[in-house]
Amino acid sequence: MKRFLAGIALFGLVLLSACQPGETSVVGKQVETQSGAYTEISVDELQSMLKDKSTLLVNVHIPFEGDIPETDLSTPFDQIDQYLEQLPTDENSKIVLYCRSDRMSTIASETLVGLGYSNIYNLDGGMVDWENAGLELER
Fold first, then answer.
1. What is the pLDDT of residues 61-117, one digit of tens each?
2. What are the strands, taking DSSP E only, across 9-135?
């Protein structure tokens, strides 16, 4: 009986440790480039990440077609290397990039990885998937 109770207590501790407040569970899909890797994430994973206020959300679509709520910055995908002063100086900071369909944000993700950023996320499907999930854009 003592072993049974100890097992239940251990199971409870494991469950509690897996649900730490403020932490987000993002699996995503690792995408390798010549100079490193970034992670493609789903709309659900982005929503989870947005709970962590240390995540920077960047719209790289041109021309402007709207923002996902809580967007921190808008910068042209093909000029992101010219806007580094607006990005965190810590190259390990979480940065999520998105555009309309994810073509432009893929290019911007590869650029930032090439510049040494190591915690880059790209919204797979972009604003199209965001809207298809029934979520609103700020226009």
1. 999 999 999 999 999 999 999 999 999 999 999 999 999 999 999 999 999 999 999
2. 29-33, 36-41, 56-59, 73-74, 95-98, 120-123
The Cα–Cα gap between 89 and 27 comes to 25
Distance, in Å, from the CA atom of 107 to the CA atom of 12, rounded to the nearest integer, reads: 44
Strands annotated E in 36-133: 36-41, 56-59, 73-74, 95-98, 120-123
Type of residue numbered 63: P
pTM of the complete model beyond 0.70:
yes
* Distance separating alpha carbons of residues 136 and 78, to the nearest angstrom: 26
CA-based torsion, 47, 50, 111, 60: positive or negative: positive
E strand residue ranges, the chain: 29-33, 36-41, 56-59, 73-74, 95-98, 120-123
Q: Are strands 73-74 and 56-59 parallel, antiparallel or unpaired?
A: parallel
- Enumerate the β-bridge partners of residue 32: 37
